[in-house]
Amino acid sequence: MAKDPGRILIVDDDEDILTAGRLLLKQSFADVTTAPRPDVMPDIRADGGFDAILLDMNFSRGATSGEEGFKWLGRILEMDPEAIVIVITAHGGVQIAVEAMKRGATDFVAKPWANERLIATVKTAVQLRRSRREASTLKQRNEALTADTAGRPQPLLGNSSAMRQVLSVIARAAPRTQRAHLGEMARKERWPETTASGGGPGHG
Predict the structure, then answer these.
(1) What is the pLDDT of residues 44-55, one digit of tens each?
(2) CA distance 143 to 157
């Protein structure tokens, strides 16, 4: 089965965790990068960014509060507000995980993790990242279209008799140059052009 092209980053000071995570996730994802500390992790904005970032919550020896993880979670989200961050907590670190999710983390996994749970969590995270990118792209396109059409007169469309009557009234009330423009519109839309006098071709 082909691997998912997603880019995954694991940040943890435990070399065993990095090795185990890389070997496991490489079975499902094409690109798995590791870093022993947040301050040496690669640029998360380069090459389109990572689809999912697994971030340990403690890096100093003996630290258990998660404060280091909270700090780096905030920095990652500052650099990439749409980043998908999965925090890695020690067994029983539910309170830390809950607080991290309040601060913007997407999900969490506890050490030692269950392989199936980790893979499923990362796959869900990658899909969420892609959905956010698609939504962002559509929003940008809509904003560009709105900006492009803002302030520009929109042509009256339709070929009903009611619309032809509206154009006829406008044409009779409009200055000569506007009549010519409306006449051109009528020819393009294959509507019978109405003259200002109200007569058809050859009238009078």
Answers:
(1) 887 778 999 999
(2) 23
